[in-house]
Amino acid sequence: MDAFAKLALCAALAVLAGAAGAQPVPPRVVWVSPAPIGQGGLFFDELRRGLRETGQVEGRSLQLESAWGDGTSQQAAKLLAEVVATAPRIIVTQGSMGPVASKATTTIPAVFGYSGDPIEAGMVDSLPRPGRNLTGISYMTLELVGKRMELLKELLPKARRIAVVATPDHPGDSAERRASQAAAVRLGIDIDYFEIGRGKTVADVLAAIENTRSDAVMFFPTQTVIGNRVAIAEWSLKRKLPTISGWAQFADGGNLLSYGPNLADASRRLAFYVDRILKGAKPGDLPVELPTRVELVVNQKTAGALGVNVPHSVLVRADRVIE
Questions:
Q1: Distance of CA 209 to CAs 91, 106, 186, Å?
Q2: Could you give the CA distance from residue 115 to residue 171 in angstroms, rounded to a whole number?
Q3: Alpha-carbon gap, residue 63 to 196, rounded angstroms
Q4: Phi, psi angle pair for 63, to nearest 5°
């Protein structure tokens, strides 16, 4: 049974239970991910944990369901439309499903965990006053862009040129570029920008970087980058080019460094919004939050393979070191 069939069955059973005079069926909350469960299951589990911490009880105060994509943008809109058709009480979206939800429904409350700028994506009117049927957490924190570059410089003090991989169609990309350029000027580093999308794949970008004199590569964190993290790590080791991005999965996938929001913590925080909405709050009145916890992950195994000496000053700041 596919995701839509399962959701439709749950919705139908709820109607039948009500018609039969049974106990009221708890409101349905559906988590929708563009990625398969193997890539997003951890974050769904954190949402579930967060709901328990708010006092919500599955089967009593809510029904928690999930729908999973195949990692392609083509399938995302279809999946979200199928979820909307079952009329859940709240939709919780992961990653790129946020902008899709904003187009799929203007009435069902949706809570997002989103990597880009939700204002630029047309999801909310402002962070303090979202004003629509969506709210949640934006993982994009511009000050971290410069800090990632500072980390590279700390590990590679002789670095003079860094390749920065951007995604121009990702809302917030232009702001991240400005932040990276400001950091580069401050650190005395030259930048070469490379773009994923608009006909250029990750493989195309990596091949182009090989023709430069880059000392390291910084990837703006997007689902495309994370989805290709293992291939990027293999390329990094082959070309002896250190890499950094914003989410722990990047370092877990074999790359040298990640520094950015703790996505597990942020996913757990989404439960706060679900709880408030179930208790009567309007999404448009709940301010969009930025992450409150960041994490530095150092892949020491990769550092050794690259011949990079990670200073003690970095290791002691790391939240995790992969040996």
A1: 40, 42, 23
A2: 9
A3: 39
A4: -110, 125
Q: How confident is the model at residue 47 (pLDDT cuts 50, 70, 90)?
A: very high
The closest alpha carbon to 242, from 257, 229, 228, 253, belongs to 257
List residues bridging with 113 in a β-sheet.
94, 137
- The structure tokens 């392609």 sit at 72
Asked if 64 and 90 touch (Cβ cutoff 8 Å), the reply is: no
Instruction: State both tokens at 245.
Output: 């991005």
Tokens found for residue 2: 């596919």
CB 294 within 8 A of CB 259: yes
CA neighbours closer than 13 Å in the CB half-sphere of residue 207: 5
Which residue matches tokens 């040129």? 161
Residue in the block written with tokens 């511009």:
142
Hunting for tokens 């996913």 — which residue is that? 267
Give the strands of the sheet with 110-114, arranged side by side: 63-68, 28-33, 90-94, 110-114, 134-138
**What pLDDT shows up at residue 177?**
96
Give helix then strand counts, H and E, for the chain. 13, 12
Residue 82: both structure tokens together: 């199928």
Instruction: Mark out the alpha helices in the chain (DSSP H runs).
Output: 3-19, 37-54, 73-85, 97-104, 143-155, 173-187, 202-209, 223-227, 229-239, 248-252, 263-278, 300-306, 312-315
Does the predicted model carry a pTM greater than 0.85? Answer: yes
pLDDT digits (tens, 9 = 90+) for 164-200: 999 999 999 999 999 999 999 999 999 999 999 989 9
Which residue do the tokens 């996505």 mark? 263
Cα three-residue angle 293-175-315, rounded to 5 degrees: 40
- If phi > 0 it is left, if psi is from -120 to 50 it is alpha, else beta; for residue 195 that is beta
Q: Which residue has the tokens 């179930």?
A: 278
